[in-house]
Amino acid sequence: MKQAYFPPISQLEGLPLKILDAKGKEWIFQFRFWPNNNSRMYVLEGVTPCIQSMQLQVGDTVTFSRLEPEGRLVMGFRKASNATPSDQVQFVI
User: Fold this and answer.
1) Secondary structure tally for the chain: helices H, strands E
2) Which of 17, 70, 72, 83 could form a disulfide with 87 if both were Cys (CB 3.0 to 4.6 A apart)?
3) Over pLDDT 70: what percentage of the chain?
């Protein structure tokens, strides 16, 4: 799925990604990969401040989308099903 939204990377150090959240705040994560046998495991590093800011917990869902035509990456999140509707934020594109 990473190919649908994230740019291709070939170097282990990866590259910084600027991603907007639902409130318009820009976050910068390091997008990189780790070799894993005959494949790669892709990771976003530096997400802890974002997770804390959004008060995400185990079971919550983070979604990534690309706005066209400019190609900006955006993210939204959905609280786990035990959250109340007022706790939920979604992107409307």
Assistant:
1) 2, 5
2) 83
3) 82
In angstroms, how far is the first alpha carbon of the chain from the final one?
Answer: 20
Distance CA 93, CA 59 (A): 24
Whether the predicted model's global pTM rises above the 0.90 cut = no
Neighbouring CB atoms inside 10 A of 25's CB total 11
> Which two structure tokens, joined as six digits, stand for 16?
């910084």
Render pLDDT for 52-89 as a digit per residue (tens, 0 to 9). Answer: 999 999 999 998 888 878 888 899 999 887 655 444 44
What span, in angstroms and rounded, lies between the C-alpha atoms of 42 and 15? Answer: 12
Cis before 16? omega within 30 = no
What single-letter amino acid sits at 22?
Answer: A
